[in-house]
């Protein structure tokens, strides 16, 4: 079996030498970066080794056992929310009252569903309002954890876990996993990685270019388009915090990523010339049919169709593969099968409430961090909202909370105060 796998691997590499050369170069660069960062940035190397080993074991167990772990981020957020409420020592924005009213309205007064057999996962649709309430009373909380060290450790550990996931897939199936992950869908994991990078690079002002390159390699390995979009958005802010030499290194790394996507993986990786092939855009276009393809009709539904209403049967028929994948049944027309938070939010909440959710998150970040850092922190969760859960995803919201907690720890640092007031360097 091992001989066949190795023989297969050599055969694959010989058949696609461009990809093989790029991957070998990537692994070499990654290995060097990991060695240097572990040596210089990880203080407690023994603890780091134990955490890495535990993550590898957990990843292996879930890979072979398919354990349900989707509830884990919300469980951690729930425990933190209880702690933050008990220790609350901060002012609360009046927007919390708006979020509370919207939560009550959509839970109690949403129109009843069509006569379908399956119930909506309406609790997922309520999560943005619950997250907002937690955000408003916990945004100035202070914890004793070393968030900088935790974030740096995850930046180093995550690419190792991706390689491990690729290796496990090769052992079991004999082919490379093109979208590796740790234990969740990688579209959910990448925003958390980007939040860790924001903590290290923007809040704690560590501009070591090796950290950025390692994060960029990890995002590329996941194959997540929304993750790449989030990385590009954060990179725009990051570039302007660097000196000229480092700026060219980052721009070169971005150029290499684009060359890889366009020349090696093919134009379909970005597919600018054929947007209809992007599944999220297909889904949005289909749900747009509910409004007769008219933006004016969208404006006429200020509170959407509610959290219980199904996608109309005629349109639902076009989503069979996503219904099967997301809900487990091809006949379940739960709007969650739209995948994108913005598409689902437009249908369930209406455009005004959906815009309010985005604004409400940004406004609280602005109150605590200043407008510039708030814009940076919004990038991962907003880009994820175009593809997956975004503002209704526990990992993304958990990363955003971690940024706020890290900022509270670093308020005494003059460099961070400069950034929060709008200075990039």
General description of the model:
With 425 residues, this protein is mainly alpha-helical. 69% of the residues lie in helices and 0% in strands. It contains 20 helices and no strands. Helix 2 (17-41) runs antiparallel to helix 7 and helix 2 crosses helix 9. The longest helix has 27 residues, at 147-173. The model has no long low-confidence stretch (mean pLDDT 86).
Summary?
With about 425 residues, this protein is mostly helical.
Keywords:
single chain, about 425 residues, mainly alpha, globular
Instruction: Provide the gyration radius in Å.
Output: 22 Å
* Percentage beta strand: under 5%
Structural class: mainly alpha
Share of helix, binned: 55-70%
Whole-Å distance between the termini?
Answer: 55 Å
Mean pLDDT: 86
| Low-confidence region ranges | none
What spatial form do the alpha-carbon principal axes imply?
A: globular
Order of helices and strands: HHHHHHHHHHHHHHHHHHHH
Q: Write down how many β-strands occur, each being a DSSP E stretch of 2 or more residues.
A: 0
Number of DSSP helical runs = 20
Q: Biggest sheet, in brief?
A: none
């Amino acid at each position: 079996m091992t001989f066949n796998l190795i023989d297969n691997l050599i055969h694959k590499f010989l058949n696609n030498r461009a990809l093989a050369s790029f991957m070998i170069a990537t692994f070499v660069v990654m290995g060097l970066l990991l060695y240097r960062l572990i040596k210089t940035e990880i203080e407690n190397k023994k603890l780091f080794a134990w955490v890495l080993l535990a993550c590898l074991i957990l990843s292996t167990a879930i890979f072979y056992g398919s354990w349900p772990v989707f509830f884990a981020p919300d469980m951690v957020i729930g425990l933190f929310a209880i702690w933050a409420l008990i220790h609350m020592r901060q002012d609360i924005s009046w927007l919390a009252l708006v979020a509370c009213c919207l939560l009550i309205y959509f839970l109690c007064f949403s129109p009843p569903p069509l006569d379908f057999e399956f119930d909506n996962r309406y609790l997922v649709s309520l999560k943005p309002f619950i997250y907002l309430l937690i955000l408003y009373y916990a945004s100035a909380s202070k914890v004793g954890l070393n968030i900088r060290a935790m974030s740096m450790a995850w930046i180093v550990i995550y690419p190792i876990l991706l390689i491990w996931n690729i290796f496990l897939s090769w052992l079991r199936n004999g082919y490379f996993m093109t979208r590796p992950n740790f234990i969740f869908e990688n579209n959910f994991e990448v925003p958390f990685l980007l939040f860790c990078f924001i903590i290290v690079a923007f809040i704690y002002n560590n501009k070591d270019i090796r950290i950025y390159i390692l994060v960029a390699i990890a995002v590329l390995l996941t194959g997540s388009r929304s993750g790449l979009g989030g990385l590009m958005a954060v990179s725009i802010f990051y570039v302007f915090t660097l000196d000229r030499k480092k700026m060219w290194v980052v721009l070169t790394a971005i150029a290499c990523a684009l060359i890889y996507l366009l020349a090696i993986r093919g134009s379909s990786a970005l597919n600018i010339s054929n947007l209809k092939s992007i599944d999220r855009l297909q889904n949005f276009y289909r749900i747009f049919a509910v409004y007769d393809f008219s933006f004016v009709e969208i404006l006429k539904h200020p509170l959407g169709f509610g959290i219980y209403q199904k996608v109309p049967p005629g349109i639902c028929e076009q989503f069979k593969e996503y219904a099967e994948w997301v809900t487990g049944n091809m006949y379940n027309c739960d709007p969650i099968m739209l995948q994108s938070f913005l598409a689902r939010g437009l249908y369930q909440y209406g455009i005004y409430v959906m815009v309010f959710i985005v604004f409400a998150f940004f406004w609280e970040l602005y109150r605590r961090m200043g407008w510039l850092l708030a814009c940076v922190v919004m990038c991962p969760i907003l880009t994820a909202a175009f593809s997956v859960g975004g503002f209704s995803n526990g990992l993304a919201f958990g990363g955003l909370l971690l940024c706020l907690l890290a900022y509270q720890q670093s308020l005494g640092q003059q460099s961070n105060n400069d950034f929060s007031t709008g200075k990039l360097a």
